[in-house]
Amino acid sequence: TTEIYTLSLHDALPICYLLRAQNRFDVKAARKSLDASQLDTDEARHLRWPSLTFGADYLPIRSAPNQNINWDAGLAFSLPLFTGGFIGASVDQAKARARTAELALALVARQAASDVKGAFSVLHHSVATMNSLIKAVALAEENAKLQSRDYAASLVTNLDVLTAQNTLLQTKLNLEHARAQACLAGIQLEFAAGGPDFVSEDK
Question: Is the pTM of this model over 0.85?
C-alpha cells in the first residue's frame, strides 16, 4: 500500500536563491571588472594632479672635488600644463570602459536572476506533477484492490482486473519519472543560484 504524502513547496520564489545568484562566479567576475575599471578611471583623473618627488643617493666612493660628500638628495616638482588634452582623453576612455563594465554587470546580474526564476518555475511544476501522481497511485491501488475483490465475486472480468493492474503499474512508473524530474529540477535550481552554499563561499 502506498502512503499518500506530498512535497510542500512555496508558490513564491524564496529570496535567498536570488541573493545567492548575485554571488555566482560570473556575477563576481563582472563586479571585479567594474571595480578595476573604476580604479582605472581614478588613476586617469590623478594624472591632472601635480607631483612632488624626493630622491636620495648614497655614494661610498666619489671622485674629486666631491670625494668627501657621500650623499645626494633632490626634489622634483611636476605640473601637467601641456598634457591636458591627453589626460582628458585618457579619462574619457576610462569612463567609457567603466560604463561598459557597469552595463555588463547589470546584464549578468539580470541573467542570473532570470536563470533562478526559470529553474524555480520548472521545479514548481515538477513538484506539482509529482504530488498529483502520488495521489493518483493511491487511487489506482485502491481501484486495483476493488477490481480484484469484485472479480472474486464474479462482478467483473479478468480483463478488468488486468486493466486496473496495468493502470497502477503505469502510474507508478510515471511517478518515478516525475520524482527524477523533480530532483533534476532541484539540482538545476541550486546551480542556477551559484551551486551549493559551501561552493559559493569565498575561501
Answer: no
Query: How many Cα neighbours within 13 Å face the side chain of 23?
Result: 13
Determine the 3-state secondary structure of 104 from DSSP. helix
Report the C-alpha gap between 121 and 38 in whole angstroms.
37
What cell was used for 181? Answer: 524530474
Q: Is the CB of residue 141 less than 8 Å from the CB of residue 1? A: yes
Q: Where are the alpha helices (DSSP H) in the chain?
A: 15-21, 25-46, 84-152, 158-192, 197-200
pLDDT surpassing 50 at residue 202: no
Is residue 44 a contact partner of residue 89, using CB atoms and an 8 Å limit? no
Distances (CA, A) of 181 to 129, 170, 184, 187: 10, 16, 5, 10
Other CB atoms within 10 Å distance of the CB of residue 56: 8
pLDDT of 146 higher than 70:
yes
